[in-house]
Amino acid sequence: MGGCNTPPTSATATDETSITGDGDGDTGDGDGDGDGGTGDGDTGDGDGDPGDSEGDGDGDPIKFDLRASADVPNDDCTCSDDLKHVICGGLETENCAPDGACAGGDCINDPCLAAELGKSSYGCDYWAVKTDLIMEGTGACFAAFVANTWEKPAHIQAEYAGQALDPSAIAIPVGQGANLVYEPYNPVQGLAPGDVAVIFIARDNGFLPACSVPPALVANVGVVGTGRGQAVNITTDVPVVAYQILPFGGGSSAATSASLLLPTSAWDVNYVAVNAFEKSVAAPTAQPSMTIVAHEDGTQVSLLPKVAVQGGNGVAGGPAAMPIMYSLDRGETLQISQDAELTGSPLEANKSFGLFGAASCLNVPVNAIACDSAHQQIPPIQALGSEYVGVRYRSRGNMQDEVVPWTVVGVVDGTTLSWTPAPPNGAPVVLGAGELVRFSAPGPFVVSSQDEDHPFYIAAHMTGGGNFGGEGDPEWVNIIPTAQYLDDYVLFTDPTYSETSLVVVRTPGSGGFAPVELDCLGELNGWMPLGDYEYTRVDLVTGNFMAVNGCENGRHEMWSDEPFGVTVWGWGSSASQGFSTVYVSYAYPAGASVRSINQVVIPVG
C-alpha cells in the first residue's frame, strides 16, 4: 500500500522490529511480496490498482459481481447473491448443484471458493472475537451463531489457540423464551440445510447467566482492557452466515451486544477505526475499544492514531499522529481500550486482517443509567459506501418519533454530504478525513457524498432504557451502504429477547419496486417512501414473546428480485413474564456484500 513501503524510522513506535508494506516501493501494492499477485493466500489484497476492482493485483478489470444488475463480462452472466444461481441478462438461467456454486457467471464445484470470490457475508472461514467487557461481565457466555444457507449439511469446526473445540459445545436451538430447548449437534451428520447452530465457546465465573449448554472452554477468552489475546476460528465445508453474541441468553442477562461476522475472504488491508461511542460517564471503568485480528502469521498492522495510544500489556503506545506498528500471527488479537476514542484513525497492513470496534460498556447518553456492551466488525475502507439510508428501530413506549444518536465518520477530506429530505439538526454537510460527528435525530434520511471517491461510515444507536421502563438499552450497529445490499438473507433472531423487529429498506429496479418476502409472513407491506427508496418495519415478537402475524424468533429467510437491506433489532421489556428481559438489546445487519466499491487507499506512513 502506498506510503507504507519503508521501515519505521525513529519517529515510528513499534512493538517489534518489522517492515510494513509491499517491499517494492510501488504505490498501491498491499501484499508484501513485490509482485503483481497477492502471494499471501488471500482472495484479493485490496491494493487499489487502477482497473483492478477485485484487488487481486493483476491489473485486470473485475471478473464478476454478485449483483444481478451488474454489467460484467462472461456473456452478461453473473451470480445471484446466495451463489446458487447463474443469472444472464437479468434472468435466472441455471441452478447450481448442492455440491457446487456460482462464481464468475458459471457453476463451479467448490462452494467455499465461490463464497471466497464473492466477498459477502456468506463464507466458510470466520474468526469470532470476544471484545472488551467491563470486569463485572468478563465471565459472560460467549457464543457464535452459524446459519446454514446451503442445500446440503454444513460440517462445523471451531478451534482456539490451535486446539479444536469439543463439538458437544455446539447445539441447535428450538423454541423461544421460557420454552427454549437445545438439541445436540451431530458432527457426522452436520447442520441440516436451513438450521442454525449455537457454538457455546466459553464462559468463566461471573454474575451473568451460565451458557445454556456446557461451553467448550471454562475460561475468559477475551482481553480485559488493552492487551493481546486469541480469537476463535470457525470453519465450515459449505457457505454459511455467522454472527457472534455476548453474552448468549442476553434476554435474561445484561451488558449485551452482537455482530454480523465477516468471513476472511471479505477482509482487506486498509481500514478506518471506529469505536462504539464516547467514554461513559455513568460507568467510570467503561472504555471505548477496538480489536485487530490476524488470520496469517507475519501480519504487520500500522495505526496512525488521532489521539495518543496509552499502550500496555504487550501493546506499544505512542503519541497522536505518529504511526505505530503491530505484529500479529494467525489467530492473534490486539486490543486497545482507553478513554480517548481512536475513531477516525486509519490502519494499513501487509496482509488482510479483521477489525472490530467496541465499548466495554456504553451509556447512551453518556450519563444515562444502565450500560450495555457494544461491538461490530468494521468493513474495510474499499467496502464503505457513498450513500446510506438511515432508518431507526421501531419507537419504544408511546413515543411517535423517538430521537436517537447517529455516528458519521469521514474517510477523505472534502467529503460533501447531501441529506434527503433535509439535513437533520447537527448533521454534518462536510466531512474531513477521520472526522467524527455524532448528532441526534429521529430520521429517517438518505445521506450521500458527491461520488464513490468520497466514502464514509455511518452507524445507528439505541439509547438506554431508563426512560422506557427498562425497554431496551444502549446499542450500536453498522448501517450498510445501499450499494452493498443483497437480494437474499438468512438471519437468526435470538430467542431470549421478547421484542424483535426488523428494519427493511428496498431499492427500485427498472420496473419499480419488487416485493420483499419474509418466510413466516409472505410479502411485506407498510412501505414508506424515502428519496429513491422505500422502508418498512416488521415485528416478529413483542410483549411477552407474542408471535406477530405468524412470526417468531429463530431462523428466517428473506428474498426479493431487487437488492434490499435488513437490520435486526432485539430488546426486552417488563412485559415478559417468567423470563425477565429488561434493560437489554442487540442489533446487527442481517448480511451484506463486502465488495470493493471504491478505490480509496488511506496510507499510514
From TrEMBL:
Here the segments flagged for biased composition (Acidic residues) are 23-34, 42-59
Where does the record place the IgGFc-binding protein N-terminal domain? 257-570
Which residue ranges run through the membrane?
none
Pfam families per the UniProt record, alphabetical:
IgGFc_binding
Could you tell me the keywords of this UniProt record? Carbohydrate metabolism, Glycosidase, Hydrolase, Polysaccharide degradation, Xylan degradation
Q: Which GO terms describe its molecular function?
A: hydrolase activity, acting on glycosyl bonds
Q: Is Hydrolase given among the entry's keywords?
A: yes
Q: Where is this region: Disordered?
A: 1-67
For the biological process aspect of GO, one term held by this record is: xylan catabolic process
Q: Where is the composition biased (Polar residues)?
A: 1-13
Instruction: Tell me if Hydrolase is a UniProt keyword of this record.
Output: yes
The UniProt entry, under InterPro entries, shows: IgGFc-bd_N
By what name is this protein known? Endo-1,4-beta-xylanase A
This protein's species is: Enhygromyxa salina
